[in-house]
Amino acid sequence: MAQKFYDECVAQKSKLFSTGNENYSALKELIEHLMADFEHDVWKTLGHLRRALHGNFLFTLDVDMDMKNSSKNAIYLDQPIFGVPRSHLVSRNV
């Protein structure tokens, strides 16, 4: 799952993620380092990424009450909150 996540990120071709981009290169190296020994647990790898990036820049990873069974906790993986409404981010008029 983590390898597929990484492959999908790398597959995206855009100026933001060009190989000449210093931030992208650092992130790629970090992911490759974490995935070098694929014996890592996926959740452990995602936790390392979150800790190394000091926040939820790629995804949010939270533990909260399970929506189906309030006596248990669940892990939730989601997209990050960008601080502006989605409509503003995807609008072609901006």
Automatic annotation (TrEMBL):
<feature type="domain" description="Peptidase M13 N-terminal">
    <location>
        <begin position="2"/>
        <end position="88"/>
    </location>
</feature>
<dbReference type="InterPro" id="IPR008753">
    <property type="entry name" value="Peptidase_M13_N"/>
</dbReference>
<dbReference type="Pfam" id="PF05649">
    <property type="entry name" value="Peptidase_M13_N"/>
</dbReference>
<dbReference type="GO" id="GO:0006508">
    <property type="term" value="P:proteolysis"/>
</dbReference>
<protein>
    <recommendedName>
        <fullName>Peptidase M13 N-terminal domain-containing protein</fullName>
    </recommendedName>
</protein>
